[in-house]
Amino acid sequence: DLYTVWIPLGDVAVEEGTLAICGGSNILPSYGRVRETYGRLDVDRDKTEGWLSEDPLEVSARYGGQWMTSDFKAGDVLIF
């Protein structure tokens, strides 16, 4: 199993641009092709921009899921 951890080094309010996760993108069948292709890219190795879309609502409209975020305090831990 592979886990990713995100730990803010300072307090971050949603209005400042916190991390957002699309709930369900790890299990919804509609994201299968994304996981098999884009999800395996390496931005350095594959010379990609590093994001699937500049519009997160476009992603959830196309593939499903719901965007989730929150205010974070320094030292919070998000494991996904």
Structure overview:
The chain is of the alpha+beta class and 80 residues long. It contains two helices and four strands, in the order ββααββ. The strands form two sheets. Strands 1-4 form a two-stranded antiparallel sheet. A two-stranded antiparallel sheet has the order 2-3. The chain is globular. The mean pLDDT is 91.
Write the layout of secondary structure elements.
Layout: E1 5-6, E2 21-23, H1 32-36, H2 56-63, E3 66-68, E4 78-79
Antiparallel strand pairs: 1-4, 2-3
Shape: globular
**CA(first)-CA(last) distance:** 11 Å
**Helical residue percent band:** 10-25%
If strands are numbered along the chain, what order do they take across the biggest sheet?
1-4
Q: What is the percentage of strand-forming residues?
A: 5-15%
Quick one: biggest sheet? Answer: 2 strands, antiparallel
Q: From the alpha carbons, calculate the radius of gyration and give it in angstroms.
A: 14 Å
Number of helices: 2
- How many strand segments? 4
Q: Low-confidence parts lasting 5 or more residues at pLDDT below 50?
A: none
Residue-averaged pLDDT, rounded? Answer: 91
